[in-house]
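Recall the central idea of this unit: under ordinary conditions, the amino acid sequence of a chain determines the structure it adopts. In this exercise we apply that idea directly, starting from the sequence alone.
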Amino acid sequence: MRHVFEVPFAGHPNVRSTHRTTTEITVETSLTPRGDCIVGVGAGAGCAGLPADVKGALRRASSRVRITIAVGQNSFVIRGRGDPGLSLEHPTDMVTRKSDFLCPRTLAVGCDAASVDMPRGMVRDLRRGAGGVLVIEVDAP
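Accordingly, the structure predicted from this sequence is:
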């Protein structure tokens, strides 16, 4: 069964998108240059705000996750998986990880891309204030 949830977010002049192992969006509206994995601020939800059905699907060992970050006409896809150990309790942040590290901010693990892989044109658009949408699609047999 497929579960889908969309989270709108805003760009920010300090979006760098240079982290090699993670990608993050946050509900917070401020961003310092140290937040090198953050690609969006002012998000409509953190992990805690995900619907119960999406959380349940993400917690299945067999779940496959597709995260699409859409900015204007451009999109960037990250593929990963869920994990039974996901708490999905963080009120402000959602983080995808190449590793298997779990914490309340973790949305998906074992991902095939990170913020550094985002097309630079999209990063420029986000720095100029363009908004975007993070689309979470979970296939959980």
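The domain at 2-139 is CATH 2.60.120.630 (Jelly Rolls).
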